[in-house]
Amino acid sequence: MLRGNMHNFRAVDGAELAYEERGAGLPAVLFVHGWQADRSVWRETIEELGPEVRTIAVDLRGTGESRDAAGPFALERFAADLRELVESLHVGPVILVGHSMGGTVALRFALDARELTRGLVLISPVPASGGGYSAKGEAYLRSTTDNADAARAWLARTFAGKPDDAMLERVCAAAARADREASLESFESWAHADFAEATRRIAVPALVIAPEHDAPEMCERKVAALLPNARSAVLPGCGHYAILERPREIAQLIREFRER
Q1: What is the mean pLDDT of each run of 10 residues along the chain (260 residues)?
Q2: For the chain, domain boundaries
Q3: pTM of the entire structure?
Q4: HEC string of the chain?
Q5: CATH of domain 5-259
């Protein structure tokens, strides 16, 4: 687990969301994980940032150590949960750092809670226009929610090279902890997202980090190009799970973005 202070936050509907906090200073950085993941994927990045940066890493409802969460398990609900959390901690406006689906959640947050958004760092984000998968691709991803072997094979391919066993076990364990109903419902929400045009109204600074081996041209064309104040960075030698392959480089990019 992350080496910070673990807390539980009770959302307005009674869901208990686990989050971890460490460091000090403003603006705070709020980390949002991707599909079938949890806050543990940010461990190394947060450690690289050090105690001089206040960080908050949360388990979205239906994942990790979050409990008693009913649906809807959708981008809008995830963003609303984050809004409640930020308001309860009195830390806004925050910089949101989102990976994969977490990037889409961050975009939704920036639209729904503009006054609480200081900036966005989006790493391998799913576009707000959806995942663009074929019917076969969607069926395969859905199959990973109740098939450990399929999940392991899929997650192994999210790294640029062969991941070490410990790293792969971590992401597989996070996927196994995710509630299947929540995973399936949230998949429909992000895979078929349809608010790309609205993201043109997001005026805060944004950094889109595109791993070299994870369709960086799509990140540029479908995400960064729509955000009026975005810049892009291509991270060489890594895949979709760049946050585990290159935590030091990502932490440095976040630090530079925050200092601006």
Answers
A1: 73 92 95 97 96 96 89 95 96 97 98 98 97 95 95 95 90 94 96 98 98 94 97 95 96 95
A2: 5-259
A3: 0.96
A4: CCCCEEEEEECCCCCEEEEEEECCCCCCEEEECCCCCCHHHHHHHHHHHCCCCCEEEECCCCCCCCECCCCCCCHHHHHHHHHHHHHHHCCCCEEEEEECHHHHHHHHHHHHCHHHEEEEEEECCCCCCCCCCCHHHHHHHHHCCCCHHHHHHHHHCCCCCCCCHHHHHHHHHHHHHCCHHHHHHHHHHHHCCCCCHHHHHCCCCEEEEEECCCCHHHHHHHCHHHCCCEEEEEECCCCCCHHHHCHHHHHHHHHHHHHC
A5: 3.40.50.1820
